[in-house]
Amino acid sequence: LSKKFRTEPIAIHRMEEGRKTQVQPLGTNAKNEMSTQGMKRAIIDFDEQKGLQPDAFKDMLDWYSGDGGSFAAMLRVRKYGCIAQTLREEDIQENYESMTGKIFTCELWHMRATCLNSLAANHYGH
Fold this sequence. Notes:
Strand order of the largest sheet: 1-2
Number of helices: 5
Distance between the termini: 40 Å
Radius of gyration: 19 Å
Largest sheet: 2 strands, parallel
Shape: flat
Oligomer: single chain
Helix content: 40-55%
Number of domains: 1
C-alpha cells in the first residue's frame, strides 16, 4: 500500500527523497470553530502549537485562512476583539487577543466551489 501511494499516478507531486521541509502540520483541537469564542480559542491553540507567544506578534503579522464559515468566524473574532484593544505597550496579552496582528483570508478553492455551486443551482435549480 505504501508503494502504491509513492508511485505514479497517485504520487504526482511527491517531495524529493531526503529533502527537508519547513512546513509543520498542526494538530487538531476540540474547539467549536464556528462560534466566535471557539474560533478565538482555536487560533490561540494553533499559535501555541507553533510555539508563538503574545510578545512575538508585536512586530509580526500572522496569516490564517479557511472555508467560508471559518473565515466569517475569524472576522467576528477580530471585530469583537478590537473592543478590548488598548494599543499600550504594556498590554501585550490584551492586544494579542484582539487578533489585530493577523490577516484572515478565505481559501480560493472554497470560493471557487461556492461560485460553481451557485451557478449550477441558478441554472439547473436545486
